[in-house]
């Protein structure tokens, strides 16, 4: 009997070891190390926007434990939870959070966390805000030959946008979605969704409003300087004072006009024709004074013709100084 036990002892011990190993493996007692991707869940206040630079949405956990426990863990609803908030009066902050087992929910079992990848995350917190912004129209397409895009009307001209307060301060305007001007149409009218300027990083600013857009397509307009336009003084009924220009050389003026070439050519041929253009100084309301007073020159222009605008987009204004005196007394008759 003893000889039988000792015969092929090495083979028997190996078989016993392999059997025990198989039994432990079947019982899930083998210790294993694995990496598990876990969703990152950031909790914050309702009026705070949170972003993670780099776009991190998952955290890799390196865990160690029984293989059966790790397999069960992979089926569980694990998450790495981070709580972040802004202090009172703060509009933005960039805190760095070091991850630990306290941030992991749903673990259970006898599985240990060895490491986090990444071990730290930096958050960008921004307070939400609303601001009105001017709307610009995004034009695409070309009018028919000989025509151009003229006046553009947007209703409403401003819309409310939402996003981080600090980012809203960097945005001056928002634009409509593309407005396509067909080559066979004189005018275009329609509704467009407001879009956000592409230079805004992160797409964190939103606008849900729509606007009405009217695009004028008109004859190509030229610009020309018209000289020698006479200035006349306009009196109201019953005005009893005399008014004259302080500087006689301002009796005629030169202006820059824009409009269809045909109309501008007609005005340029005869700038003194008051049926084409009228420049006048309205002295209604002036009282007797020996001090020169500035009055705005007003223009009556043909349809489709207007004063050229300054480089800043404002219509140019003309002012002339006028003197007010009492009328000369009528001579007595004998």
What name does CATH use for the topology of the largest domain? RNA Polymerase Alpha Subunit, Chain A, domain 2
Major sheet attributes: 8 strands, mixed
Count up the domains.
3
Distance between the termini: 175 Å
Strand-pairing-aware structural class: mainly beta
Shape: elongated
Our estimate of the beta-strand percent is: over 45%
What are the SSEs and their pairings?
Blueprint (H helix, E strand, L loop, with lengths): L1 H5 L2 H18 L4 E13 L4 E4 L6 E9 H9 L3 E5 L8 E2 L2 E3 L5 E2 L6 E6 L2 E3 L1 E17 L6 E9 L2 E7 H4 L4 E8 L6 E9 L14 E10 L1 E14 L7 E4 L6 E9 H9 L8 E5 L6 E12 L5 E2 L11 E7 L9
Parallel strand pairs: 1-4, 10-13, 16-19
Antiparallel strand pairs: 1-3, 2-10, 3-8, 4-7, 5-10, 6-9, 10-12, 11-15, 13-14, 14-15, 16-18, 17-22, 18-21, 19-20, 20-22
Please tell me about this protein's structure:
The chain is mostly beta strands. It folds into three domains: 29-122, RNA Polymerase Alpha Subunit, Chain A, domain 2 (Beta Complex), CATH 2.170.120.30; 128-219, YbbR-like domain (RNA Polymerase Alpha Subunit, Chain A, domain 2), CATH 2.170.120.40; 221-325, Beta Complex (RNA Polymerase Alpha Subunit, Chain A, domain 2). The chain contains five helices and 22 strands. It has helices at 2-6, 9-26, 67-75, 165-168, 261-269, and strands at residues 31-43, 48-51, 58-66, 79-83, 92-93, 96-98, 104-105, 112-117, 120-122, 124-140, 147-155, 158-164, 173-180, 187-195, 210-219, 221-234, 242-245, 252-260, 278-282, 289-300, 306-307, 319-325. The strands form four sheets. Strands 2, 5, 10, 11, 12, 13, 14 and 15 form an eight-stranded mixed β-sheet that branches. It has a seven-stranded mixed β-sheet with strand order 17-22-20-19-16-18-21. A hairpin with a 6-residue loop joins strand 13 and strand 14. The longest helix has 18 residues, at 9-26. The radius of gyration is 41 Å and the shape is elongated. The model has no long low-confidence stretch (mean pLDDT 77).
């Amino acid at each position: 009997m003893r000889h039988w036990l000792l015969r092929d002892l090495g083979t028997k011990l190996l078989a016993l070891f392999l059997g025990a190993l198989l039994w432990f493996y079947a019982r899930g007692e083998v210790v294993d190390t694995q990496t598990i991707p876990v969703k990152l869940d950031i909790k914050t206040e309702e009026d705070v926007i949170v972003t993670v630079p780099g776009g991190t949405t998952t955290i890799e956990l390196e865990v160690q434990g029984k293989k059966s426990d790790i397999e069960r863990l992979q089926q569980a609803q694990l998450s790495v939870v981070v709580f972040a908030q802004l202090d009172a009066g703060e509009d933005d902050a960039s805190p760095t959070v070091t991850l630990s087992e306290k941030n992991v929910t749903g673990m259970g079992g006898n599985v240990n966390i060895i490491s986090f990848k990444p071990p730290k995350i930096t958050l960008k917190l921004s307070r939400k805000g609303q601001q009105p912004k001017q709307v610009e129209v995004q034009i695409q397409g070309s009018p028919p030959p000989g025509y151009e895009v003229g006046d553009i009307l947007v209703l409403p001209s401003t819309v409310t946008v939402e996003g981080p307060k600090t980012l809203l301060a960097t945005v001056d305007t928002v634009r409509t979605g593309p407005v396509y001007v067909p080559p066979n149409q004189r005018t275009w009218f329609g509704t467009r969704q407001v879009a956000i300027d592409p230079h805004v990083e992160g797409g964190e600013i939103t606008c849900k409003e729509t606007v009405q857009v009217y695009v004028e397509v008109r004859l190509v307009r030229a610009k020309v300087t018209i000289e020698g336009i006479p200035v006349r003084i306009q009196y109201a009924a019953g005005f009893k004072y005399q008014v004259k220009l302080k500087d006689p050389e301002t009796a005629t003026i030169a202006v820059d006009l824009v409009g269809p070439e045909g109309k501008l050519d007609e005005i340029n041929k005869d700038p003194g024709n008051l049926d084409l253009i009228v420049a006048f100084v309205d002295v209604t309301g002036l009282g007797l004074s020996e001090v020169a007073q500035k009055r705005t020159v007003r223009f009556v222009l043909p349809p489709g013709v207007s004063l050229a605008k300054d480089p800043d987009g404002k219509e140019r204004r003309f002012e002339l100084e006028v003197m007010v005196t009492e009328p000369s007394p009528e001579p007595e008759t004998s």
